Amino acid sequence: MKRCMLGLFILGCGFLGCNGPNSRGNLKELPDFLEGVWEARRPRKPTWGIKLERDGSISKMIHPIAGQVKMSEGSSYEEGPVEGTFALAIMGPCQAQYDPTTRILRISLQVEYFHMKLPQGDLEGRTEDYFEGPVSEDGKTWQAKWRSYNYLKGAQDPDKEAIDANPEELTFQKLDLSQMKPES
User: Fold this and answer.
1) What is the pLDDT of residues 17-59, one digit of tens each?
2) Is the pTM of this model over 0.85?
3) Which helix (H) or strand (E) is 115 found in, with range?
4) Which of the ends of the chain has fewer CB neighbours closer than 10 A, N or C?
């Protein structure tokens, strides 16, 4: 099974390209204050983390389905706590765009394929996540509306109208990494 997953991982990287469009943003430079790590913590739910680079690319993220992802690798794979369980995610295009006139930051993230082998069965599908909202004047907070469309194999497609009408409100904080101590 591990060999099969490794083969799928390599095939996915070859197909999608490990350094290709997965990590590129809108090819416009972002303002200095947007560069860095943005985090949205949610009570009893997975944390979102997005690392924006000066050139508009997204180099790393923490995604509720894909987990911790280095975009240069194009995918993530994690063994589960029970033997034979795992989570695999192959990333698709991820983009950041910023409008300085309105201070609106837009980010789109795609997981082109995920497969989770759980003790009770398998989940396969893809997901698209869109964030949009204003960045504060001091550049430390981003109030984003989040819309997530999850396509599960064997299930109905998501109700886009309902999702569009009811986005989840997230507050991203820009992390000050200069205060963090290096790992030993």
Assistant:
1) 333 333 444 446 899 999 999 999 988 888 899 999 988 889 9
2) no
3) strand 104-118
4) C
